[in-house]
Amino acid sequence: MAANAPALTFIALFLPFLAAVIAPFLTRRFGHNAAWILALAPALAFLHFCGFLPEIVAGEVATGGYAWAPSFNLSFSWFLDGLSLTFALLITGIGTLIVIYSGGYMKGHEGQGRFLSFILLFMGAMLGLVVSDSFLMLFVYWELTSITSFLLIGFDHEREAARRAALQALVVTGAGGLSLLAGLVFLWNMTGVTQLSLLVHMGAGLRESPFYLAALILVLGGAFTKSAQFPFHFWLPNAMEAPTPVSAYLHSATMVKAGVYLLMRLNPVMGATPAWEILLPFFGGITLIAGTMLGLRQTDLKLMLAYTTMASLGLLVLLTGFGSPHAVDAAVLYLVAHCLFKGGLFMAVGAVDHEAGTRDITRLGGLRTAMPVTFCAALLAALSMGGLPLFLGFLAKEEIYAALWAGNPRAVFFTGLALIGNALMFALAFAVGLKPFVGPRAETPKHAHEGPAPLWLGPVVLAGLGLLAALFPGIAHRSIFSPMASAVAGKNVVIDITTLPHPGVPLTLSLATMALGALVYWRLADARALMVRALENLGPGPDRGFDHVVSGLVRFSVSVTRFVQPGRLEIYITVTFILLALTLLVPPVVFGELPGMPVWPDGILVEETAFLIIALIGIIAVLRARDRLTAIVSLGIQGFAVAVIFLLFGAPDLSFTQFMVETLSVVILALVMTRLRLSPADHRPAGQLIIDAVIAAACGLGFTLLLLKSVEGPFDSLLTDFFNAYSKAIAHGANVVNVIIVDFRGTDTLGEIAVVMVTGLAVLALIRVRADKKVESGKGDRP
Amino acid sequence: MNTLILRTVAPFLTALMLLFSVFVLLRGHNEPGGGFIGGLIAVSALAIYGITFGAGAVRRAIRFHPMAIAGAGLLLAMLSGLLSILSGVPFMTGLWVYPVIFDVEVPLSTVMSFDLGVYLVVVGAITSIALALEQEPGPELGPELGREED
Description:
The structure holds 2 protein chains of 2 kinds.
Chain A: H1 6-30, H2 34-38, H3 40-50, H4 53-57, E1 62-69, E2 74-80, H5 82-105, H6 112-131, H7 135-153, H8 160-191, H9 196-199, H10 203-208, H11 212-226, H12 235-238, H13 244-253, H14 257-270, H15 274-297, H16 301-322, H17 327-356, H18 372-386, H19 392-404, H20 409-433, H21 453-471, H22 473-489, H23 505-522, H24 524-538, H25 542-564, H26 569-590, H27 606-624, H28 628-648, H29 652-675, H30 686-712, H31 718-731, H32 736-744, H33 746-781
Antiparallel strand pairs in A: 1-2
Helix pairs in contact in A: 1-3, 1-6, 3-5, 5-6, 5-13, 5-17, 5-21, 5-22, 6-7, 7-8, 8-11, 11-14, 13-16, 13-17, 14-16, 15-16, 15-20, 15-24, 16-17, 16-20, 17-18, 17-19, 17-21, 17-22, 18-20, 18-21, 19-20, 19-21, 19-23, 20-23, 26-30, 27-28, 28-29, 31-32, 32-33
Chain B: H1 4-27, H2 35-53, H3 55-62, H4 66-86, E1 96-97, E2 100-101, E3 104-105, E4 108-109, H5 110-135, H6 143-146
Antiparallel strand pairs in B: 1-4, 2-3
């Protein structure tokens, strides 16, 4: 089958990146209509991934990939099962709609090309994340989603709030990413595998490992920050500074689900332990309740949705870790339902904001006649979110209650939490999806009317899917939900819930949820006032704490920098040489590795002695030189003498290089000296002179000892023999030194010349900076 | 420096040294020499020219910005390494050809072009440092002092 061709899957994975590269050019050429063309990329990827459905439904998995660094067991490899395929379809499917929507939403914005490019970049990263098989690839894509999220939240970078929110999201999710990396390294060391597809078979040993808890906490650190679980939730509402397509796509439908994805992926491996079943429901439950309560306080439609997203993520984490027979089924159903209705609602809210000019719930009303299509879509999505029959949300909610309800106190407690959370979400769903459209027509900053097709297409499709999936549950369960639940549970699972209400505890709980939710909706203003009062009494939250941490960090790094970078060259040089002397002298003394007294060699030739004496004369000349220029040139005497000694001992290459380096150092030092306004002679106070002399002597002594020690042992001629034997034979060169430089160790040389080049650039830049400053201040002096 | 002897000799000396640097570069594979040493010799040659006639004269003489020369060298070295990947052998494996030019067999290789790249990087990077130091006015010097050569 064509879909199995690895090359095609590879292309599908990179299509979004490709589209991201051409997005700015297309937008310059076609304006906002470029979005229609760019939407082809995710659409094609979506179709490609649809081709995997028959295989996945049959219970198989699809893998593929390419070796990357086989010696490190690294590969670029993907792994498609029910879980990752569902995510891939959601990402590309919703992504297609989002790109089209962005075309309408950002129409006429000067940064539209950049925006589309970022969105597509994110899409590629997210797609890679969910299909990754190798740990490292997972981590790289994980971080890439954090970075693209940073770019998108801070898209409107001229506003301080957007910059702060972007930075906050990056810091929180980036720190979580590092925690995840540490967790993955733990998993790797515990099991010896670097691929998720192999890891899933290693659950038993992993759960009994003494490092299980450490690995679990580190992985949870990654998942909880990404999926905005309490107490790391604060970045998500702030992320609403991003344009609405971003909120709809990243911060409700896809990216924030990455943490949930990871937990679901690891459920067969790390799940079903006491730690897992305590930590996940506990944090998930808190997040659920905190999210709904904070959401109730808001009047901004986007913020209300953001907090319900946080609550829904909490519910998903709770379900993933709950451990009862139907919990996984419920999580799977709710995840897909949430993507559909929340993505739709966000886009609908964006359309309202775009057309009416405000998204403050107290200033909106009666839009049903002005925006009928948006109203329909928003209402359908709200019905699904509220969990009314005939909608996917209803199936999910029935399954949630079926999963949570049991006769023990733990089950009763969490059922109660879910009931309160769901009821408040019910109220918020209709506050967002119904309230702006009904009642008397309110005056809005802009004259509201129905937006263009791109603005309502997304909400309509997503809300419609939420209805269709529930109307034809057989197809939906067979092709999506059962394979996905099987992957999460790690065993074969068949979901068979239908939309027909059947009497029982779950239905009763559903009815109670709706009744309570309707009550809150009816008294929404009172509930909000109550919540505002309650939260004011709680005091500042982690959002404020984040600011304190960041400003403390800045103060700390400023003081550290002031300490280690005082800005005086003498101090730098003194510290460097003291450390050098210590490094050379302390270890031999401590470990008793001092060399013995060298034996005075016999038969030193006259010319060797002569050049040694010349070198000594050079050093004495340096020390006694009246002015700096003489000292520099005298330093050259010593250098040349050493070069000649090299030559005498049969190292012509080294000797030539030494000659040239000496020559050029004298030239460059002299040039530098002429640029600095130094007194021609060196006047140091006697005390300083003694200190400097001691440091210099210590360095010299250290090197002498090191060299004596290294020639003391027997000479190991292994490398010499190797190079002598093979230099001519396989590298066609008689000069061993040169052959080593350009052939045997050519890659090292490539690195070295890159360093030479960069050093040159850096020196050039430093000289320029000083020169420019001079020019600028010179200009300033002129009247 | 304005000595008559230096002004007379410098062009010849520079030309000779540059020629010698190329000689050292090319013989490097079998005799003492190579890209690093050759490059350093070439820089010394340019330094002599610069000391005699000023940095501007050197810049005019070498036509390209020295950093561009260094960049070209790095690119050449990189491409020499990549060429072997295209031929299906690991990165940086030396490839040799032996064309016969005027009845003389001339061994050419990616190793040689790599060494040429090393030579160019050394020449470009160090020359650009030396020229910048020689030409730009120092932070403490007045423009009238720093620009005396131009």
